[in-house]
Write a structure and sequence with these properties.
Blueprint (H helix, E strand, L loop, with lengths): L4 E2 L2 E2 L12 E12 L6 E9 L5 H15 L2 H8 L4 H11 L1
Parallel strand pairs: 2-4
Antiparallel strand pairs: 1-2, 3-4
Helix pairs in contact: 2-3
Length: 95
């Protein structure tokens, strides 16, 4: 199995789009979480559950998150947020 981490961000996802409802969850870990067998640490985890009707939405979200994840300064901005609203605003600004 390959890692779902991109630098300090992980985007784990199912191989099948069989969720009853498309939804996402975000984990912010300022101190980091050991994520894979190489002991890489991630600070943000975006969990995605996707319904088969949302395939194109999933691809867009995954592509956008991947673009944000490759820039360490983006991750630093997101990790230092204190509220959900602040996180969403900073994430939206980066899109």
């Amino acid at each position: 199995m390959s890692s779902t981490a991109f630098g300090r961000v992980a985007i784990p996802h199912s191989l099948q789009m069989s969720a009853l409802k498309t939804q996402g969850y975000i984990v912010i870990a300022p101190k980091g979480i050991v994520w894979d067998s190489k002991s890489n640490k991630v600070n943000l985890v975006f969990f995605l559950a996707v319904n088969s009707d949302s395939k194109s939405l999933y691809r867009n979200i995954f592509d956008d998150l991947s673009q944000i994840a490759v820039r360490p300064e983006n991750i630093a901005k997101l990790v230092c947020t204190n509220t959900y609203e602040e996180f969403i605003q900073k994430l939206t600004d980066l899109l």
